[in-house]
Amino acid sequence: MDPRSEVLLRQAELFNGTVLFAGLPADDLLGHFPDAQGWSWHAGEHALLDARFDHRCHFGTAPNEADVQAAVLFLPKSRELTEYLLNTLAARLSGRELYLVGEKRAGVERAAKQLAAFGQARKLDSARHCQLWQVRVINIPEKPDLHSLAQHYELQLTDGPLKVLSLPGVFSHGRLDVGSALLLEHLDDLPGGHLLDFGCGAGVLGAALKRRYPASQVTLLDVDAFAVESSRLTLAANDLQAEVINGDGIDAAPVGLSAILSNPPFHQGVHTHYHASEHLLRQASQHLVNNGELRLVANSFLKYPPLIEQHLGPCQNLAEAKGFRIYRANKR
Ligand SMILES: C[S@@+](CC[C@H](N)C(=O)[O-])C[C@H]1O[C@@H](n2cnc3c(N)ncnc32)[C@H](O)[C@@H]1O
Question: Is there a contact between 323 and 300 (Cβ–Cβ < 8 Å)?
């Protein structure tokens, strides 16, 4: 059980009834509260919750329309996303309770200050390195318009300017990541066919690929609903058409790919997490055609080449700059 859920269970009498758990972990929490519902924007956690608690967990960038008597937000990593989520929840909780639960090292105490906009916030519990806060929503905010919160920036690429839109909580919100910038400089000589941007975030690589290789089919994939929505906005802003998939890990990707491009994930929440990236390296060959290519940017300290060589083929170091490397390997 996630420690944040354990803290909620210590105060279980507060959460009986139609409570919405927003950003909930994929644990047994819903099993303890039969009238509660979940809202997740993480495709992997949502799939686990959906399999276990049929139709009780909604997926997307906004909650479903069901009326609830209270809501609990599990604190996400990004401050901007927290603000969007709190406002979205508070907008439908007039006179009702909004709770915030999070780990101390994730900054729950600081985030709880954001509750003051809605009323008098108070700390209800502190245990398992987590805190639980509560506010009765007296000052009701306007329902936020997610698209208006997108940050816009423009990249000057060799084939022209590319507009990028990123929504709250998306990787490298409002600016280009240094590793992605390096990969953007090394998009030459990709095989024609079907290209995948794995872990697409705001869609910068996928959009650049589609523009550079217009005859190729391009698919963008991310686990996070806000990333997928950002990628759709980025593609639309550049008049580009590509498939965008919300899915967890490379298993959710199509097969028959000619190349997989990625700035793969290595951080998740407050914990360092390599699982999705290592799984990508192990399984890429299942999704590539013969001689299909995997091209990655990664922090120089990440030891990917042995895994790439073990599961795909000889790994070439295409470039190195500012602590990042571009790796390339073709399926044997
Ligand atoms: C380092 S970011 C790169 C984002 C984008 N490609 C860029 O260059 O700005 C990695 C991305 O992988 C996504 N991600 C994390 N775990 C994933 C998983 N299991 N399956 C698919 N995508 C995942 C994250 O949401 C994030 O957008």
Answer: yes
Give every CB contact of residue 188 below 8 A, 6+ residues apart in sequence.
Answer: none
pTM value? 0.96
The 10s digit of each residue's pLDDT in 273-288 is 568 899 999 999 999 9
Which CATH architecture best describes the domain 3-143? 3-Layer(aba) Sandwich (3.40)
Pocket around ligand 1 at a 6 A CB cut-off? 44, 171-172, 177, 180, 199-202, 204-205, 221-224, 227, 248-249, 263, 265, 276
pLDDT (tens digit per residue) in 57-68:
999 999 998 999
CATH of 147-330, one of 3.40.50.720, 3.30.390.50, 3.40.50.150, 1.10.760.10: 3.40.50.150
* CA-closest candidate to residue 208, choices 254, 154, 157, 260: 157
Atom of ligand 1 at shortest distance to CA of 179? Answer: 8
The residue whose CA is least distant from atom 8 of ligand 1 is 180
